[in-house]
Amino acid sequence: MESKQRFYRHFQDSIAELQGQIDELESVSAVAGERQEAIDHVLAGISKLQHDVSDTAESTPSYDRKQYSDSIKILSEKLNETVARVTPRSRFQFKRSSIGAHVDMGAPENDPRLHPGSLSRNMQSYSSEKRQEAVESDDKVGDLPSAAAMRDYNAELSQPSPQNVRKPSFSTARNIGIASQSHLHIILPSSAARATASGSLTDLKWCIVDMSVPTAQGKPFPGLALRNISHSLVVAGHVNGPVHITGVSNSIIVVTARQVRMHECKNVDIYLHCTSHPIIEDCTGIRFAQLPKCYSIEGEAIKENQWDQVDDFKWLKAGQSPNWTTLSSAEVLDESIWTKVVPGQPGVSVEETLQKVGIPRP
Q: Where are stretches of biased composition, namely Basic and acidic residues (predicted)?
């Protein structure tokens, strides 16, 4: 029963995330294949979800399996409609038979385990062909360099620098992805605003990453993933869709989002504006507080903020879960910390700045 409930939550989260990504397609730039890349990402997500349903077919009642299949069908039709609306006729449109047809993942003829790779291979082949068409066409526009000329910002960040605060422009990037860094203070400038089609921070230790400026002045992330981060401060900025936080420990996160999911996190303070209930699972020592005023943007204050209406999926007993709490007024960082300390100060190392914000937690 617990396994069925876990898969149900996983399925609903995945559907919600993919719906959010589809809703954002219209706002994603078509230049240099960015929109096509976003479409490909949704296609891959639908394909994975279909495989997930298939993998649980033996233990899933036929009624539930049909509900999952119908949900995927509706999602595929929504993608078809959205792509048809945002894609010029001179390009392409998805054929209904490609992703819009009803697929019963419980039926043997549609089970990828019985026909290895057939579904994903066909979708990936179709997706790759269309991506190449989009890239070849968009490269003629000239606003951004081709993929071969893209800068490796992670490699640049890994190089020694006399600057205490690093400000990579991400001006030629299509997405913001920072990975495998340590002991760095990174602040993304407004030039990174065109790269917020998607975002991810992975494998960071003793870092400060501030993405608030490009997501406030440009476009918010449609979704954001934070994974395997320790002893760090992440000012994630604004996210129109879900934020998935996995394997984060001894850190502070600041974010505005529609949905927040935390998995396997420990000793994390999260300053939050969230329009739905934050969800934690397999977490301990999580402390919540409201978003600092300096990170709020115009019109945001009127939106409902459910930052303290936390659901703990691993605490099914009555009463307050011991895995999370709210920060008291004495524990909440003063506004001056966010406006004067976090942006960096001359001669102050990243370790000293982290200590001033309370990392590691005493």
A: 128-140
Strands (E), the chain: 165-166, 176-182, 185-187, 199-205, 208-210, 224-230, 233-263, 266-274, 279-281, 284-290, 311-312, 324-326
**292 three-class SS:** coil
DSSP codes, 211-245: -HHHHHHS--BS-EEEEEEES-EEEEEEEEEEEEE
4, 9, 67, 144 from 61: Cα distances, Å: 10, 16, 10, 50
Structure pTM? 0.62
How confident is the model over 123-160, as pLDDT tens digits?
A: 444 444 444 444 443 333 334 344 334 578 888 898 88
My answer on whether 188 and 328 are in the same domain is: yes
Reported for 243-248, long-range contacts at CB under 8 A and 24+ positions apart, including other chains, are 244/17, 245/270
The residue out of 53, 86, 119 marking a domain boundary is 86
Which among 151, 275, 178 has a CA at the least distance from the CA of 232?
A: 178
- Please, which residues bridge with residue 179 across strands? 202
Q: What is the pLDDT of residues 10-50, one digit of tens each?
A: 888 888 888 878 877 777 666 656 677 778 788 888 888 88
**Residues whose CB is less than 8 angstroms from the CB of residue 21 and which lie 6 or more positions away in sequence, other chains included:** 38, 41, 42, 45, 222, 223, 241
The residue segments making up the domain with residue 209 are 162-357
Domain boundary at 26, 60, 86, which? 86
Instruction: Provide mean pLDDT across the span 350-362.
Output: 92
